[in-house]
From TrEMBL:
PANTHER family: CYSO-CYSTEINE PEPTIDASE. GO terms for molecular function: metalloexopeptidase activity; zinc ion binding. SUPFAM superfamilies: JAB1/MPN domain. Residues 16-125 form the JAB domain. This is M67 family peptidase.
């Protein structure tokens, strides 16, 4: 499982949720995929949901953007369901899984984070398959990034 920050605390996201995120990002290739992971509840009783979003960037091979109306709908639905955004995720196409300068500018315009309690996951997709991943969180006035083991994302429930 992967610990992600959300709502001011660290929480373990179940592997099958992470696998859903990876499936969406691989399916979006050769464009960047994007979305969010929402969480409701606390501790062992937490419930998780992957919300894939369409990439609304005018240059979707090298950037991602949420359409404002889609982001608003996610926020409204999350409010009704008493969920919080735990993670914003996106892929990099045939490029490293690093939280780029552009990712930083979008997440913290003017150096102020838009979602300071949220983790950002970047997954490198090469040839349609996830090859590496990283997680970034806002700490001490900047984003801190650590690599993630893809083995954590490759869980599939037995059939």
């Amino acid at each position: 499982m992967l610990a992600l920050r959300g709502g001011g605390s660290e929480a373990l996201i179940p592997p099958e949720v992470l696998a859903g995120m990876i499936r969406h990002l691989e399916a979006a290739w050769p464009q960047e995929g994007c979305g969010v992971i929402l969480r409701s509840g606390e501790g062992e009783g937490s419930s998780w949901r992957v919300v894939p979003l369409e990439n609304a960037s005018p240059t979707p091979r090298v950037a991602y953007a949420f359409a404002p109306e889609a982001w608003l709908q996610v926020c409204l639905d999350a409010d009704v369901r008493q969920e919080e955004v735990a993670c914003v995720f996106h892929s990099h196409v045939d490029a490293p899984a690093v939280f780029s300068a552009e990712d930083r500018r979008q997440a913290a315009p003017s150096g102020i984070p838009l979602l300071p309690q949220v983790s950002y996951v970047v997954v490198a997709i090469r040839g349609g398959r996830a090859s590496s991943a990283s997680r970034s969180v806002w700490r001490a006035g900047d984003f801190q990034t650590v690599p993630l083991a893809l083995a954590d994302f490759r869980f599939e429930k037995p059939v």
